[in-house]
Amino acid sequence: MTEPSPPSRPDRFDPVQIIRLRRYGRAEDEHSDAELSWFIQQYTAGAIPDYQMAAWLMACCFRPLSPRETSTLTQCMVDSTPGGPLVWPTKGYPPLVDKHSTGGVGDKVSLILAPLVASLGVRVPMIAGRGLGHTGGTIDKLESIPGFCATLDMEQFQTIVNNIGCCINAAGPELCPADRKMYALRDCTCTVECLPLQTASILCKKIAEHPDSIVLDVKYGNGAFQSTPEQAAQLATSMVQTGHAQGLTPTTAFLTQMHQPLGYAIGNWYEVQECLEIMQPWSQNKNTALNYDLIALVCLQAGQMLLQSGLPQYQHQSLKDLTQLAYDQLKSGHVLPKFCDMALAQGAEPSGRDTLWYPDASQLYAGVDICATTAGHVTQIQTMDLGWMTVALGAGRKMAHESVDPYAGILLRVKLGQAVSVGDVLCTLYAPSDKITQAVQQNALACFVLEEDTVIASPSSLAVVTHQVTLEHGVQELPWEELPTVFHELYPPPSADA
Question: What does pTM read for this prediction?
């Protein structure tokens, strides 16, 4: 069967011809800006049916959009926002810097990062999402705090950012409705993983939010959507290029490993609790051995956000210096009041400042310990499997309309490289019934691979951050010895058996 001949440029806009150009066009055949704008506008308005958009989305998987087309698609999604991108006051206000993560198991960075950077004088407007699949969502975590509202309108969102310094809110229906409609279609047509479509979907909401610059966290590994650093680098490069083309300058990305859950808590309330512990004065934190990776990543991203802010006090400092500044600020306990101010402004119950929103004991579930049946060192943690188990326990959702249980989850008791004896607790499961926990107990045990003769000898093999991606220098590896001192202070020393 012969391939159809390349389509000619249509004299007028027609969805069939636009789909044909995408599917059968030559490498040099690209959509014009006007074509893409018309196509997205008509689809958002309901004039183009889902089946034609689905055909075009699938064609994008066969013949991906060019960087220019990707930038144009992103702008078209932004343009679907009534009133256009948010307008922020600038005179007398600090700069705006945001962060986005592609998501992973136990990724609770935003809960600490936003108030940390705000406490150091930079405004952080953060539009976040709910969990779907094996990854948890920032909004679900915050909504486990009694009274917390993450469905503010944009005027309320901006007021809190300007007054408090940070706000974490869900993307409402008024923000990039074209993306909302297209994403729902991508989710049921197996086109979610198309790199240009991912780029446009992620960045359009950030551009509509309209910060001055952004820091991206692109994860890879057995708990992330991208399984290899090469795949993560492709997505990061696409987003950095598109971010700059759309005026988010600079846009910087870090590639971060997810071969184990980030920190020790997986599940909505438990992740909030872990963050509250970290934000208290450090002498009160009893779990740094289990969340060294979370703390290091938070501080590095905070350092980069401060660097990108352009504030005079940070202009002549290095990333290492500003990462250390963020680390010292976090250890001091000065971040917790900023988080409390944000939470209270977003409706959290006023008593939370004193109680840290710890739920009544009657609301919590009895934990079920998963214990090691052999001895050895932890050489692998099946992170994605743990994420799906958390969904099975009730903490996540398989479909967008499903609710989540704030008090279901998993607490890790070990991390990679740790020595384990028979009977040691590997993790603890929390669910509303014994029947639910019994269904996943055996699978939970299988998530931890123990080997007697294999030892992870160096902290460098555990480094959560491996590369930085910028427009100027592309993808650059970050060797362990060049990472900020924070990493060397926090990470466990090499095994004595190595």
Answer: 0.92
